[in-house]
Design brief:
The chain has a 15-stranded antiparallel beta sheet that branches. The protein has three helices and 15 strands. About 30% of the residues lie in helices and about 40% in strands. The chain starts with a helix and ends with a strand. It folds into two domains: about 5-95, no CATH class; about 105-304, Beta Barrel (YmcC-like fold), CATH 2.40.360.
């Protein structure tokens, strides 16, 4: 075969292979996030080395560099773990880009999905444990509306108290479409330590910096459904997997039948694996950490 013909065929084959790979947008996104994560870890490593170089004591300098290497290895493992969660999700989600069409005309003014009803003036009170600490949660549906991507969303004020101290203060925005799906349009979350803000991690608004709305609760769930609840790459990436539709659950607020169970994961916390139960006409009644066994249960519902 003529060399030039061979090279032309090789180029065509490579181009076709590349084009085929580029159609798997979910995996391309996963790979891009992995590259960014590794680059960030390397950047942190070299900053740490630069600080070590300014220690005059040789023993301290050596210990500092050893710690920097340890931290780099930990960061690399975290990146790999995140990548594994995303890749697993891609197997369920498919190859297409995640780009939901949000048409304000497709949304209604109320949220009455039986498994995620949000009536203004309602506050859901939860109690339980996380990491061995006592947790108290107040999930208050406000009467405030916030327009996002032209949709009038319902604002929820979500506060988390750990051992009596406020540790998370969040505003969430939800809206229901005409088919009954409840969409999650974003959150403004603030973590606190000692009463002072420590992190805004997880904050996103659909339509801003590539962030997109996800479905927090389907209109008609089917066992095996797997979907994105939110999407802001490397900021908010929760997945839900529908596991059961008819569980009976008892919590301090009462006994509930025909409960929907979803299992939730996120690449941002690869070790986190939670199960959540939703009762018809009520909403979320129980969250269980499937690794530690710790639970957060609905204690009561208040109406204002």
């Amino acid at each position: 075969m003529n060399f030039h013909v061979f090279m032309s065929l090789l180029f065509v084959s490579f181009t076709s292979l590349l084009a085929s790979a580029e159609t798997n947008f979910c995996q391309l996104t996963s790979q891009a996030a992995l590259t960014a994560c590794r680059s960030g870890g390397q950047g942190d490593y070299w900053v740490a080395i630069g600080k070590c170089d300014n220690l005059s004591d040789p023993a301290q300098q050596n210990a500092c560099k050893q710690q920097a290497s340890t931290d780099l290895n930990t960061a690399k493992q975290d990146c790999n773990d995140q990548f594994a969660v995303r890749q697993t999700a891609c197997q369920r989600l498919g190859d297409d880009p995640y780009d939901p069409v949000i048409n304000p005309a497709d949304f209604i003014s109320t949220i009455d999905n039986p498994y995620f009803p949000l009536a203004p003036g309602t506050t859901y009170i939860y109690d339980g444990t996380t990491g061995g600490a006592k947790v108290h949660v107040e999930f208050a549906v406000t009467r405030k509306r916030v327009k996002i991507l032209g949709v009038n969303t319902v604002e929820v004020h979500d506060k988390v108290f750990t051992d009596g101290a406020l540790t998370e203060d969040t505003l969430d925005w939800f809206a229901q479409d005409v088919r009954g799906n409840v969409w999650y349009f974003g959150e403004n979350t603030e973590e606190l330590i000692g009463g002072r803000p420590s992190s805004l991690a997880g904050t996103f608004t659909a339509g801003v910096n590539g962030a997109k709305a996800g479905i927090i609760m389907e209109a008609h769930s089917v066992i095996g459904d797997f979907y994105r609840q939110e999407f802001a790459l490397d900021e908010a990436e929760d997945f839900a997997d529908v596991k059961r539709l008819s569980d009976t659950i008892t919590v301090p607020a009462g006994k509930f039948t025909n409960c929907l169970r979803t299992d939730e994961t996120t690449p941002l916390e690869p070790s986190l694996h939670e199960a959540k139960w939703y009762a018809p006409g009520v909403g979320n009644i129980l969250t269980k950490d499937l690794v530690t066994g710790e639970t957060i249960k609905l204690t009561r519902i208040e109406h204002h």
